[in-house]
Amino acid sequence: MDQGDGNSKISSVYINNTHGMDDDDFYDRNLALFEEEMDTRPKVSSLLNRLANYTNLTQGAKEHEEAESIGEKKKASKSPQMGTFMGVYLPCLQNIFGVILFLRLTWVVGSAGVLQGLCIVFICCCCTMLTAISMSAIATNGVVPAGGAYFMISRSLGPEFGGAVGLCFYLGTTFAGAMYILGAIEILLMYIAPKAAIFESKHPEGEGAAMLNNMRVYGSICLLLMSLLVFVGVKYVNKLASIFLACVIVSIVSIYVGALVSAFRPPRFPVCMLGNRTISGHEIDDNHCGKTIMVSVQVEKTTYLWKRFCQGTELNASCDEYFNSNNFSKIEAIPGLASGIISENLWSAYLSKGDVVEKGSLHSSLVSHPASTHQPYVFADITTSFTLLVGIFFPSVTGIMAGSNRSGDLKDAQRSIPIGTILAILTTSIVYLSSVVLFGACIDGVVLRDKFGDSVKGNLVVGTLAWPTPWVIVIGSFFSTCGAGLQSLTGAPRLLQAIAKDNIIPFLRVFGHGKANGEPTWAMLLTALIAELGILIASLDLVAPILTMFFLMCYLFVNLACALQTLLRSPNWRPRFSYYHWTLSFLGMTICLALMFISSWYYAIVAMVIASMIYKYIEYHGAEKEWGDGIRGLSLSAARYALLRLEEGPPHTKNWRPQVLVLLKLDEDAHVKSPRLLTFASQLKAGKGLTIVGTVVSGNFLQSYGEALAAEQTLKHLMDKERVKGFYQCIVAQKPREGISHMIQSSGLGGMKPNTVVMGWPHAWRQSEDPQAWKTFINTVRVTTAAHLALLVPKNISLFPSNSEPCTEGYIDVWWIVHDGGMLMLLPFLLRQHKVWRKCGMRIFTVAQMEDNSIQMKKDLATFLYHLRIEAEVEVVEMHDSDISAYTYERTLMMEQRSQMLRQMRLSKSDREREAQLVKDRNSMLRIQMTWTKEKTSQYRATHSGCSTPEGFRDMLSIRPDHSNVRRMHTAVKLNEVIVNKSHDARLVLLNMPGPPKNTDGDENYMEFLEVLTEGLERVLLVRGGGSEVITIYS
Asked: Which of 18, 280, 310, 897 is the most exposed place for a label (fewest CB within 10 A)?
C-alpha cells in the first residue's frame, strides 16, 4: 500500500471529495471507515512518523509537544551522539570521586580500622549500587528528558513525591557544591599556601576557630568566582570538566603507584614520638626529635621541644612528668606495603575530642598523665565514631545520577545509562575498597588518624604515599574539587528550574525564568545563597552529613519508585533493563533509611520533616498534575482491594453511615439552582463516607455530550467551593425522571453504593408552568422507596445556614412519628459533628394517641436514647381525637377542586394564572371560615359561586371531597398545629416523610398534604428511611 507522507490535506479524506485522488491519497479509500475520526484517531503511519521525529529536548517532553503544536520553526538540532563511555561512565566517575577520597579516607581508615573501614565503604557502595539498579530500571522505562532523578521520581511517584524529592536532591547538590568549595579551600590553606591565612591565633585553643573564619572568607570568595563563571557560560565549565577529570585519574594512579613503590622503596617521612604520643611536625623548628643535642663532646644543648615541655632551656629546669618519664623516638610514616603494619591498623581506634593521637605498640610510662593543649602533640579535633564516619564518607559515593541527568545527549540512553552507571559504581567501589586496604597496609596508624597531616609537617596524608611527589595529589585534588564544585553549581540551578517549570510548587515559579538562552538566572542566585549557608558552616565534617541526608532521601525514593512499579505490575512498566527485582529495591530502600539514622538521627528527622512539609504543600496548594504515576496506581490497587473486601450486601448496622447521592438541578445557564443542598450534604457528612453529586441533562447523549461535560465541571467547581470530597456524575436522558431513575440505579461501585438520596423540594410547584417538576419529585420518591434507599428532602433550603454561619444556640427538633430504621435519631447526631450545628441541642418529640400510655412512652424513649448514647430532651405529645374541622374540610375540597380542574382542562397560561388567583382568594377567606357553621359555609358558597368563577368551574365547586383525602388532610393539619406549636423556634425540624399514594391519580393531593404538614416552619428536613436499621444500642 502506498502510504501518504502524513501531511496530506484534510479535505482529501472525505468520501464525497469530487476531485481526482492522487496516489498519495490512495490510503483514504482503504481507511474510509475511519475518516471522520481521523483528527482524534490518526493513522498509524502518521503517528509513527511523529514519533520518529521526536527529539530529546533538555527541558522535557511537555515543552516539546507544546512548541510543536504551536508550530514553531525549530533550528536543525544535532542528533545526540554521546556513547556510554563519554556520556555516562566518565561523568559518573568525575561526580563520584571527590574531595572525601583525598582529604578524609585516610582518616576514616585510621579511626575505624581496615575492617570497619571496609564495612563503611561496602555499605555505602551497596546503597548506591542497589539505587543504580532501581534507577536503571526507571531510566529505561521510556524516555527520560533532562531533570534526571527529579523527572524519574515525579513521573513514577507523582508530583508530591517528585517535588519533595526533587527539592531534596536540589538541596543535596547545592550543599555538595559548598562541600567541594570547602574542600578546595582546605587544600589551599593547609597544603598549598598556609601563609595565605588572614586570621591567625596566638593560642592553640583558638586555632580551630581562626581556621574556620579563613574557610568562610576564602570559601565565599571562591563561591562568588565560581558562580560568575557558571553565570557567564556553562560551555566553559564543560570544557574544563575533562581537565578536572584528568586530574582525578592522575591523582588516583599516583596513589596506586606510590603504594606499589613503597613495598621496596618506602618514601622517607619520619614521625616524632614521645613515648607513644605523636608530636606535631610543625613544632620541631630545629628538626631535632629529642630532648638534647650534643654541640661538642662535652657540651649538651636543649632542643626546641625541650622548651615546649619545660619551664626553661636549662637542663635543670622543671619539666612535664610525662616528658621526664619517656624518651623521643622516630618512626616512619610510611613503613611500606611489605612491612606488615596492616596488622596494627585492622582494628578501630576511635578518639574523643582533645585526645592525643597515640601508637599502641610503642612503650610508654605514665600513660594516664593528662596532655595539655599547649604541648606540641597531635590532637583529635572531633569525637569519632562508626556512625559519624558513615555520614562523612557517604558523599564520596554520591554522583551516580550524572549519567541519567545527561540522557538528552546520549545516542542510546536506554542502553548507556544502566551500563555506564553500574560500571562507574563498580570502578569507584573497587578503588575505594582497595584504597582502604592499601592505606591500612602502607601508612602507620598514627599518621592515618592525623587528619591534617600535622605529624608529617603538614603534608596531605594521601600525598605522602603518592609517587613521585605529594604535589601530584595536592594539585590534582585541588583542581578536581574545584571541578566538582563547578559541576554542582551548574547542575543544581537547572534542577530547580526543571521543578519550577513543572509548576507544581507555586512559590518556586519565579525560578523557572532565566536568560533568553534558557540559563537559569534566578535559580543560580538562590543556589549561590544556599551554598553560602553551607560555606558559613565552614567545617567539611559538618557539611558532609547534611548532604548525606538529602542524597539518601533521594535514593530512598528512587528505590521506592522502582519497588512500587514492580509490585503493582502497572501495564506501562516495561523497562529494557531487566536485571532488577523488587526485593533489591526494598533492600536498597532499607539501607538508605538505616544509613540516614546511623549517620545522624536528628539530621534524618529534619530531612524527613522538610520532605513531608514540601509533600503536604504540593498536595494542598500545588498545581494538579496527572503524570500516570505509581502512587496513582497504588491508590487504584488499594481501592480495588478495598472494594472487593467490602461486602456486597448491606453493611452491619454499626458501620452504617449515609453514603449520599445529592441530586442537583441546573438552570438554563448551567448554574446550580440550589447550591445549599450541597452545603447541607457536606454538613451531614463532616468529610466522611461517600458523596456523589449528580445532575440530569435533558436531551440526546450524542448531541448533548459537551453540555454534560460542562455540567460536570459546574458540579466539580461547586464541590471544590463547598469543600465536599466526592465524585460527580452527569446523566443525559430524554426525560429528567428517567435520568434520575438511571442515576439511582447505577451510581456507585460494589459495596460503595449510595444508600441515601438528598433532593430539593420543588419550589412553587402550584404556580409552576411545568407540572413535570413535582411529578419528577414524586417519581423520585417512589424510585428511592423501590430501591430501598433513604431519602432526605430539605424544604426552604435557601434558609439553611452556610458553612460560615454557625448556629450559636437553639434546638434541632426531631418529630418521630413512625419508625423507619432510626434515621431520625442518627441524622441530628451526624449534623452536630459539624461546626455549624455543634452548639444546637436536640429535642425528640413523639406522638401519643388516646389509647397510649404517654408517661410510660416517655420513660421508654428516654431509656432507648440512653442506650443509643444520644443526649436529647424527650417529649411525648398527646393528640386527642377531635372532629374534622371546617378548615380541614375546606382545604381538602379546594385541593380536589384544583386537581380536577387541571385534569379536565389543560389550561392555557392565562387561564392558569386566573385559576391560581381564584385559589389564592379562597385561601384568604379560609381563616374566617374556620369558625363558620356548615350552614353559613353553604350560604357563602351559594352567594359567591357565580361572581368570580368562569362558567365551566361552577359545577366543580359543588363536588364533595373524598373521605380518605379528608382523613389524610386532617392528620396533616393536626400534626402541623402540634409541630408549629412546639417547634416554631427550632433551628431545624426533622420529620417523617409520608409515602406517596399507590394510585398515581392522587399525586397532586400528596404534594398538598406535604405542604400542609410543613406550613409555618422555617427549616424542615423530611426524612424517609430506606427500610433497614441504621442505628443500634449494641456495641
From this structure: 18
Cα 124 to Cα 398: distance, rounded to the nearest angstrom: 9
Instruction: Please give, one letter per residue, the 3-state secondary structure of 334-353.
Output: CCCCCCCCHHHHCCCCCCCC
Residue 793 vs residues 130, 386, 778, 923, 1024: alpha-carbon distances, Å: 60, 69, 12, 26, 9
Distance of CA 297 to the CA centre of its chain: 83
- Tell me, what's the pLDDT at 174? 92
Count CA atoms closer than 13 A to 637's CA, side-chain side: 14
Burial of residue 932, with CB atoms counted within 10 A of its CB: 0-12 exposed, 13-18 middle, 19 or more buried? middle
Query: Which of helix, strand or coil describes residue 330?
Result: strand
C-alpha 309/C-alpha 323 separation (Å) is: 7
In this prediction, residue 449 carries a pLDDT of 92
Contact 791, 824 (CB under 8 A): no
Q: Taking Cα atoms as reference points, which of 925, 853, 845 lies closest to residue 891?
A: 925
* Residue among 477, 599, 604 at smallest CA distance from 120: 599
CA angle 898, 903, 907 (to 5 degrees): 85
Query: At 221, is the pLDDT very low, low, confident or very high (cuts 50, 70, 90)?
Result: very high
Which distant-in-sequence residues (6+ apart) come within 8 Å of 695 by Cβ? 663, 664, 665, 666, 672, 711, 715, 729, 730, 731
Least confident of 725-729, 866-870, 914-918: 914-918
Burial class, 858, CB count within 10 angstroms (exposed 0-12 / middle 13-18 / buried 19+): middle
Q: How confident is the model at residue 815 (pLDDT cuts 50, 70, 90)?
A: confident
Give the three-state DSSP class for 889: helix
Burial of 229 (0-12, 13-18, 19+ CB in 10 A): middle
Note the Cα 319 to chain centre separation in Å. Answer: 67
pLDDT in tens, 616-674: 888 777 656 666 666 677 777 777 777 777 766 666 676 677 888 999 888 877 778 88
Write out pLDDT tens, residues 882-909.
655 666 656 666 666 666 665 555 445 5
Side-chain-side CA neighbours of residue 473 (13 Å): 25
Rounded Cα distance, 1034 and 652, in Å = 12
Distance CA 55, CA 601 (A): 44
- Beta strands 756-759 and 727-733, pairing class: unpaired
Alpha-carbon separation of residue 677 from 614, 661, 768, 836 (angstroms): 35, 11, 21, 15
Tally the C-alpha atoms within 13 A of residue 976's C-alpha that lie toward its C-beta: 18
CB 502 within 8 A of CB 201: no
Q: Which residues contact 664 (CB under 8 A, 6 or more apart)?
A: 672, 673, 674, 675, 677, 678, 693, 694, 695, 715, 718, 760
Helix, strand, coil abundance in the chain, percent, nearest 5 = 55, 10, 35
771: which 3 cell numbers? Answer: 407540572
Q: How far is CA 397 from CA 199, 250, 360, 404, in A?
A: 34, 19, 32, 16
Q: Rounded to an integer, what distance in angstroms lies between the CA atom of residue 177 and that of residue 171?
A: 10
Question: Residue 220's Cα: distance from chain center in Å?
Answer: 35
Query: How far apart are the two ends of the chain, measured CA to CA in Å?
Result: 74
Instruction: Extract the C-alpha cell encoding 204.
Output: 592553640
- In angstroms and rounded to an integer, the radius of gyration of the C-alpha atoms of the chain is 43
- Minimal CA–CA distance to 489: which of 518, 517, 525? 525
What are φ and ψ of residue 330, in 5° steps?
Answer: -115, 140
